[in-house]
Design brief:
Shape: globular
Number of helices: 14
Largest sheet: 11 strands, mixed
CATH superfamily of the largest domain: Mur-like, catalytic domain
Strand order of the largest sheet: 4-3-2-5-1-6-7-8-9-10-11
Strand content: 15-25%
CATH class of the largest domain: Alpha Beta
Distance between the termini: 49 Å
Radius of gyration: 21 Å
Number of domains: 2
CATH topology of the largest domain: UDP-N-acetylmuramoyl-L-alanine:D-glutamate ligase
CATH architecture of the largest domain: 3-Layer(aba) Sandwich
Length: 426
């Protein structure tokens, strides 16, 4: 059966696409055309989608709306939340349409949906008329599926061709102009670095948050933002721009942004009274790692120790790039197993480690400032035992996922729990 499926995917791609389309259409009608009965906001991009969705939800709830949400880490219907155990950002069209129907039934006025290039290409969001869409960024990712960056970008652009009433684009992204070429009710750009409709000024970063001035076309206000790292300002600007475009009052945008203390698995602190900082993050692409490390490093008083790996059965070209980035920013690098799927875990570790070894400018000595540890728990334990007062330990790749896929089997896993247990042992 697997061989037949592989043959069809390779030689009859139009049949695969037709199958996806029919599934999307069937799901839409099966669950009562739910998208027609709720205002839907879509957020797409390589990184930052989950955080941006949480920020939008916080703003809209503060403005008095009942909100539903679907992200990589959780589902939300009003006050009820549950963990996303699928490890998928945008689930199958049947689960998505059922979730939208449940949101409608619960009286939700808005649905915020994290929307991936896979979902767009496979028609999982068929029938959804987006009221507003936002783009966080488009960088090196998912080339195992899309084959080329151009095809990956093309899939993202499809979301903006649906003529939303509000379209929000990150002007700091090299490809942002491509997203501004489509008909829309209102187009808003945002930026940390250049002139745009919505900007951040007077940025004062720290390890545990940032203070900045949010500037819109009509008014500005100071934001005491509790999410660390400067790239989260971009996520805040995206969320603020979408809500501003939907005519949410600036004071409510301010309160919504300031209310969020953390997002599960996104630069989430684990504190057991230790005298160093430990953060868990989902970053799993070169761009995400570079932004993450680059934002944190300047504010670290001691050393920065990082633990990373790479997912199996996915884009292999990014692995040495991630290793090189880690070697550049971190004082100590620990490469470990992540989610190998059907690949050899050691081979993945070695490919990431190649990038560390090739970074001659920031050379790491294996056994001193560079380690390869195949057991993920042991790798985390090593990082925590190396950490001293004022150091920062950053563990990336798994975020808030509830399991790891090893040899095709789902193994229960909670990064935060493992870190907490190892800290208690110290």
């Amino acid at each position: 059966m697997k061989n037949i499926k592989a043959y069809i995917r390779k030689n009859l791609p139009y049949l695969v696409n037709l199958s996806h389309l029919l599934r999307g259409m069937l799901a839409y009608y099966l669950f009562g055309m739910a998208p027609k009965k709720i205002k839907i906001i879509g957020v797409t991009g390589t990184n930052g989608k989950t955080t941006t969705c949480h920020l939008i939800a916080s703003i809209l709830e503060g403005a008095g709306y009942k909100v539903g949400m679907a992200t990589t880490v959780n589902f939300k219907i009003g006050a009820k939340e549950r963990i996303n155990k699928t490890n998928m950002t945008t689930m199958s069209p049947f689960k998505l349409q059922k979730l939208l129907r449940d949101m409608v039934g619960a009286g939700c006025q808005y649905a915020i949906i994290e929307t991936t290039s896979h979902a767009i290409k496979q028609h999982r969001n068929w029938g959804i008329k987006y009221l507003a869409v936002g783009m966080t960024n488009v960088t090196h990712e998912h080339l195992d599926y899309h084959k080329t960056f151009a095809e990956y970008l093309k899939a993202k652009l499809l979301l903006f061709q649906k003529k939303p009433q509000v379209a929000v684009v990150n002007a700091d992204d090299p490809n942002y102009e491509k997203f501004t070429r489509f008909t829309t009710g209102r187009l808003l750009t945002y930026s940390k670095m250049k002139r745009a409709d919505v900007t951040a000024r007077k940025i004062l970063p720290a390890v545990d948050g940032t203070i900045f001035t949010l500037v819109t076309p009509t008014v500005q206000t100071t934001i005491d933002f509790h999410l660390p790292a400067e790239f989260n300002i971009s996520n805040a600007l995206c969320a603020a721009s979408i809500c501003y475009g939907l005519k949410v009052e600036i004071g409510r945008i301010k309160r919504g942004l300031e209310k969020i203390q953390s997002v599960p698995g996104r630069l989430e602190k684990v504190d057991k009274g230790q005298d160093f900082i430990v953060m868990v993050d989902y970053a799993h692409s070169p761009d995400a790692l570079e932004k993450l490390y680059g934002a944190l490093k300047p504010n670290v008083k001691g050393k920065m120790i990082v633990v990373l790996g790479s997912c199996g059965d996915r884009d292999k070209t990014k692995r040495p790039i991630m290793g090189k980035i880690a070697a550049h920013f971190a004082d100590t690098v620990i490469i470990t197993d992540e989610e190998p799927y059907t690949e050899d875990p050691q081979a993945i570790i070695d490919e990431v480690a190649e990038g560390v070894a090739k970074n001659s400018k920031d050379r790491k000595v294996e056994g001193e400032s560079f380690f390869k540890i195949d057991d993920r728990t042991e790798a985390i334990r090593k990082a925590l035992r190396l950490a001293k007062r004022n150091d920062l330990v950053v563990i990336t790749g798994m975020g808030a996922q509830e399991y790891r896929v090893v040899k095709g089997e789902k193994i229960p896993w909670s990064e935060k729990k493992v870190v907490a247990q190892e800290l208690e042992k110290l």
